[in-house]
Amino acid sequence: NDESDDHDEL
Amino acid sequence: MNIFRLAGDMTHLASVLVLLLKIHTIKSCAGISLKTQELYALVFATRYLDLFTDYISLYNTLMKLIFLVSSFSIVWYIRHHKIVRRSYDKDQDTFRHYFLVLPCFLLALVINEKFTVKEIMWTFSLYLEAVAILPQLVLLQRTRNIDNLTGQYVFLLGAYRSLYILNWIYRYFTEPHYVHWITWISGLVQTLLYADFFYYYFQSWKNNVKLELPA
To answer: Where do the TM regions start and end (chain B) (predicted)?
Structure first.
């Protein structure tokens, strides 16, 4: 799932 | 975005603003470890490489800019400001923080989610953030007398990490795909480093005595 590579947390 | 993460980001922002306020108003950085501030500047510089490439949200971009500008300006103040630099106690702030950078980088090369430059730098920033507070905690142990603003600064940093752990627990239960062991373990290690400081902070607050850490 591509969710893992874009780190949406600061 | 959930309430724990928003509260965590706001607490983190408050910790940086408390520090900037302290340095800017009383023109002093007594009790503050420059080494920890340099490590934080490096953490943000290596974590926010995607600042201009991946747009996530206005909030995300804005906060990244604030953290970058504030962390680098704190380092600038302590190193170059003609008045503030005089209050920097370099004889006490002796933690060899460069010894933290290399192991974190090597660990990031070995344990990461994806072997790409961006991912390795991001993982490096996670590991480095976990240990970045060490020079500051060592300095607090040495100087013993902790002034209120410095105590509040470290307290807010610990609170931000604790709120982030609640955020991860919340996301784990609400987002099926959300599994980031590396983030969780390094975040947990970082929060545990604050545990003993928290203990003494609450003791001093409860007994209404000046915060002192045991030598």
So the answer is: 55-78, 98-115, 121-140, 152-170, 182-202
